[in-house]
């Protein structure tokens, strides 16, 4: 074996090692475990906080008024004094307001948009 062929063999071995290392790395990337889902108690869906009905019940006054409608949680506090329908809105503070809200405003775009702007979280399932 002359010097040239020895150099060729060494070159091929080096290239082989590089290819093997690169392919090995790709394989490792593929088997990287997917991160476990975030616990429901911290956040779900769009990343909004999750509250229970008991949490909502702690906000049952005109100055601190939360409600829940169709599984979403709303802080109505900045809106209660501006509600065109008056103080009747206070009926939903601290409780599940789904029946009252839907009964009064269900299907009304303006009212539903107003409500959507006050969303702070989702109700725990
Ligand atoms: C829970 C959140 C609520 C939101 C975000 C909300 C929002 C609104 C808005 C934006 C209006 C004005 C509509 C317009 O200008 O055309 C309105 C009017 C009114 N709301 Fe509410 N409302 C809520 C709850 C309630 C509840 C629980 C009741 C009664 C049980 C109620 C009764 C009324 C009445 C009688 C009016 C005036 C007439 C009407 O526009 O329908 N609202 N509300």
Give a verbal description of the structure.
The protein is an alpha+beta fold. It folds into 2 domains: 1-34; 50-123, Cytochrome b5-like heme/steroid binding domain (Flavocytochrome B2, Chain A, domain 1, Roll). The chain contains 5 helices and 5 strands. The chain has helices at 3-30, 53-57, 77-80, 98-105, 109-116; strands at residues 50-51, 60-61, 64-69, 72-75, 119-123. β3 (64-69) and β4 (72-75) form a beta hairpin. It is elongated, with a radius of gyration of 30 Å. Bound molecules: protoporphyrin IX containing FE (HEM). The site of protoporphyrin IX containing FE has 19 residues, from α4 and α5. Protoporphyrin IX containing FE binds next to α4 and α5.
How much helicity do the residues have? 40-55%
Report the top-level CATH class of the largest domain.
Alpha Beta
Which CATH architecture of the largest domain? Roll
In the CATH hierarchy, what is the superfamily of the largest domain? Cytochrome b5-like heme/steroid binding domain
Number of strands: 5
Using the coordinates shown, work out and report the CATH topology of the largest domain. Flavocytochrome B2, Chain A, domain 1
Question: What class, by secondary structure content?
Answer: alpha+beta
The termini sit apart by 76 Å
Assign an overall shape: elongated
Strand order of the largest sheet: 1-5-4-3-2
Spans of at least 5 consecutive residues with low confidence: 36-44
